[in-house]
Every structure is written in structure tokens, then in C-alpha cells.
Write a structure and sequence with these properties.
CATH topology of the largest domain: Aminopeptidase
Number of domains: 2
CATH superfamily of the largest domain: Zn peptidases
Largest sheet: 7 strands, mixed
Shape: globular
Structural class: alpha/beta
CATH architecture of the largest domain: 3-Layer(aba) Sandwich
Strand content: 15-25%
Radius of gyration: 23 Å
CATH class of the largest domain: Alpha Beta
Number of helices: 15
Length: about 475
């Protein structure tokens, strides 16, 4: 069996290096498919540790695979490193203080995610060397999670073929292994082309593309009554055809996200939304171009691998915070209302005793570790980890990296992700991931059970949610 104490020591021995990489990525926040500096920092660290790196996976410059060892068992660790726009913020500051007005920021903690998976890969490699363990560790640098579905394009290109199991994690405010699925999602651009004219003098000669967008929205609002309640349709105008009210707009574009619990349900719903768009074009005398920009599958947690990861998290432990961490987290927590705080720890209710839950709810940081529980609930968001889960048995954990009550995709996450709170959450995740990687390698019978479950749940064959002509939006 894997030596838990030794694996923890291996992570701790190089913790400063991993924290340095996380801070380097934090300090150069880059949007999806443009993470050149972030990918370079991770690649440099992997190459210095003896990994062989292949870049440009799926035609994406910032997608890469780093490998140590060879053959099977082949265990993958998934790293992300893209930021979000307009969330620039000073590290460790509970007052909104952007470093650069309108600048990017790691509002989902992906600077920690990528470096934490890196730490796990390196620790697993070191343990393999010291104990002569056969197999291979694969670190996948996965760009564009926030908008571009990088893993989907990588899965379509066969990047995860031959992988026996995959592990990943995500920063949060709790310590647990995900037992829930996510919503599948497709992103589609509806481009309408009309004919311009003077809106007062000769409106009858014009054909309004903007009208087509608005009619499509009306049609989709009526459609909502007749789709499954778990599905979601939301949209944003990407082109309104100009700013002059006295000109009939001859071009306009609306971007729809179409979500549902299963990818097959999304694909069925897409055709209904497409028909609404076609009807809008017909009513306005405009032309329609449908552009599928990206898509991703629902996340399917593999119970065998997830239980293994949960056991490993219990053995390696929650983040070890000190008084300074609690003091800083308290400053952030003071700005959140009771409903926000209770919502962020709701999943602990019923698992912990009533007394424990009240104590956790009042604490700025969570050290409680939840047991693994598989549910039929699909979280309202989406992740391209889902595409990996349709390629190989996959498990994902979370560790506390910010204060209870902190909402995702905010400057508060940016501030804490660049502080010791985020660093300690990251190191705790790395220890559990490294232990799970080695434990999976040492138990081929467990990998076989995981594969059997994977085939039963997914059919054992990845079906890409977008057509072959869909390419990453690199510009």
C-alpha cells in the first residue's frame, strides 16, 4: 500500500516551488486559449522535474501533455490555468482594489488548480522513482475551461485515449469529492443577415437582423414551457447591428448556451432551438447562419475512483490553516450575509451533527471533510471535465481555498487565491491527488472495476457534442 506519510512529505518538500508556480500564474492572468505565460510556467516546472512535454494538442497552442514513465497503469491529472475578465484584485485584500482597472483575474482559482495538479504529478513521479513503481503519470494542461471547452477539443483529438483513470480538483470552500454530475452545454452563435435601409423613409425596403434576434428570443421564451425543467436556455447579444436607431440593422448575432443534465438531451434540444431561429429568419426575411462554437458533456463521477479519492483525502487531511488565515478569512466573511454563508456549507448539513454544523457555519474556514456520497442531482453549472469522464473513469475533489460564503467568479476569489489560504488548500489537494494516483497504480483490480462501471455508465465510447467542422475560437 502507498505510504501516506511519505507522499505527504514529498509534496511538502517542494511546496515552495508549487506555490511559486501558482503565484506566477496568478500574477499573469490570461483568458482562455491565450494562456501562453501560464502554460509556459507549468511546462517549465514539469520539464525541470523530468517530464516529457508535448504541446499544441488538438491544435490549441496552450494545450499540452507532460508524461513521466511509460505504459500502464496510465493515470492522468488534469490542470487548468485560465482566468476571467474584469476581476483584477490585489492578493489578500478584502477591499475591492484592482491591480489593473478592467484587468483579468483568477476568479475561479485556476492558478491553484493547475499548480495543485502539478504538485500531485511531481510527488507521484518522485514516489514512483523511489519505489520502482511501473506505469506512467500524465499531466494534461487544459486551457479555456471558462469559455472554450478545451478538454472537449482534446477529447475529440484522442488526447485521453489509453488513460486508465483521471483525477482532478477544484478550489472551493469545502473539502469533499464530487458525487454529483454537471449540466451538459453547447454554445451556439446565431448570425442573422438582413438588408439595411432608412428606418423612417424606406423601412419597407429593409430586413432587420436585429428583429430576427428579438423574435428568436421570444420564441425561445415560449419554448421554455415545453422542455424538461432541468434544461436551461440563456443568451447574450454579441452583435446588435450598430447604434443608429434610424438605420435598419442588416446584421446581428445572439449567442445561446443550451444546457441539460445529459448531452443527448442537449443535442435533442439544439434542434428545437435551431427551428426557432429558422422561424425568426423566415418571419423577418433574413438569412441565418448557425455556428456551433463549443460544447461539453455532463460530468459522470466514477464511483470506484471517487471513493478511492475520498479515502485518500481523509488520509491526507484537510488544509492546515493558522490564526492568520482565519483572521484574513474572517474579514471576507464579514461582508457576506447569513444566507450566502449557509448556502455555501449546506451540503454539510445532515452529515455533521447539528452542533458541528452550527460551529462550521460560524467558522470562516472549513476543515471538515465530507464523506463521498453519490447523488442524482446535477449541479447547475457545467465543466469540460465531463468530456474526460466520457473518455476514462474520472474523479474530482475540492478543498477549502477561500472563506465560507465566498461566491465563485468574484474578485474575492482572486484575492484569496493569491493568499496563504489558497496556497494551503492547494497543497492539501495535491497530497490527496498524489496518494490517489499511486493507490490506483498499485491496485489494477480497482482500475478494472472502475472501467467496468465507466462502460456501463457511458457506453465506453466518447461521442463529441460538436460537429467536426467546429474549431477552437483562438482569436
Amino acid at each position: 500500500m502507498a505510504d501516506v506519510k511519505k507522499i505527504k512529505e514529498l509534496v511538502d518538500q517542494k511546496a515552495d516551488k508549487f506555490v511559486g508556480v501558482a503565484d506566477q500564474v496568478w500574477s499573469t492572468p490570461e483568458l482562455g486559449f491565450k494562456e501562453t505565460k501560464s502554460a509556459a510556467a507549468l511546462i517549465a516546472a514539469l520539464e525541470s522535474e523530468g517530464f516529457t512535454v508535448k504541446t499544441g494538442l488538438a491544435g490549441i497552442p496552450t494545450a499540452f501533455e507532460a508524461v513521466y514513465g511509460e505504459g500502464h497503469p496510465a493515470i492522468a491529472l488534469l490542470g487548468e490555468f485560465d482566468a476571467l475578465p474584469s476581476l483584477s484584485q490585489e492578493a489578500g485584500n478584502d477591499v475591492h482594489t484592482p491591480i489593473c482597472d478592467g484587468g483579468n483575474g483568477h476568479g475561479c482559482g485556476h492558478n491553484l488548480l493547475g499548480a495543485g495538479a502539478l504538485a500531485a504529478a511531481v510527488a507521484a513521479k518522485d514516489y514512483m522513482q523511489q519505489n520502482n513503481i511501473k506505469g506512467s503519470v500524465h499531466y494534461f494542461g487544459c486551457p479555456g475551461e471558462e469559455f472554450g471547452c478545451g478538454k472537449m477539443f482534446m477529447a475529440r483529438a484522442g488526447a485521453f485515449d489509453g488513460i486508465d483513470a483521471a483525477f482532478t480538483w477544484h478550489p472551493g470552500n469545502l473539502n469533499n469529492v464530487w458525487g454529483i454530475s454537471s449540466l451538459a452545454n453547447n454554445s451556439i452563435y446565431y448570425h442573422f443577415k438582413g438588408r439595411t435601409s432608412h428606418a423612417a423613409a424606406s423601412p419597407h425596403l429593409g430586413r432587420s437582423a436585429l428583429d430576427a434576434c428579438e423574435l428568436m428570443s421570444v420564441g425561445c421564451n415560449y419554448l421554455r414551457e415545453h422542455i424538461i425543467p432541468e434544461a436551461r436556455l440563456h443568451y447574450a447579444y454579441r452583435d446588435v447591428g450598430g447604434s443608429a436607431p434610424n438605420v435598419v440593422q442588416d446584421h446581428a448575432c445572439v449567442n445561446y448556451f443550451i444546457r441539460a443534465p445529459k448531452i443527448k438531451e442537449v443535442l435533442e434540444l439544439i434542434e428545437r432551438v435551431n427551428d426557432v431561429a429558422r422561424g425568426a429568419a423566415l418571419m423577418t426575411g433574413t438569412q441565418l447562419e448557425i455556428q456551433i462554437a463549443a460544447g461539453l458533456c455532463d460530468y459522470q463521477p466514477n464511483d470506484v475512483m471517487s471513493q478511492l479519492l475520498a479515502d485518500c483525502l481523509k488520509q491526507t487531511g484537510a488544509p492546515e490553516f493558522d490564526e492568520a488565515d482565519y483572521a484574513l478569512a474572517s474579514k471576507f466573511m464579514d461582508d457576506y450575509n447569513e444566507a450566502e454563508i449557509e448556502s455555501s456549507v449546506a451540503s454539510i448539513k445532515g452529515v455533521a451533527t447539528a452542533e458541528e454544523f452550527e460551529k462550521i457555519k460560524k467558522s470562516p474556514l472549513t476543515e471538515f471533510i465530507l464523506p463521498y456520497v453519490r447523488t442524482n442531482y446535477a449541479m447547475p453549472g457545467s465543466t469540460d471535465v465531463g468530456d474526460v469522464s466520457y473518455c476514462t473513469p474520472t474523479a474530482q475533489l475540492a478543498t477549502a481555498c477561500w472563506a465560507n460564503g465566498t461566491p465563485g467568479h468574484t474578485w474575492q476569489v482572486v484575492a484569496q487565491g493569491g493568499s496563504s489560504i489558497g496556497h494551503k488548500g492547494m497543497i492539501a489537494a495535491a497530497k490527496a491527488l498524489a496518494l490517489a494516483t499511486i493507490s490506483a497504480m498499485e491496485q489494477p483490480e480497482l482500475l478494472e472495476k472502475a472501467h467496468e462501471e465507466f462502460v456501463k455508465a457511458t457506453g465506453g465510447k466518447y461521442v463529441c457534442p460538436v460537429p467536426p467542422e467546429t474549431v477552437p475560437l483562438l482569436d
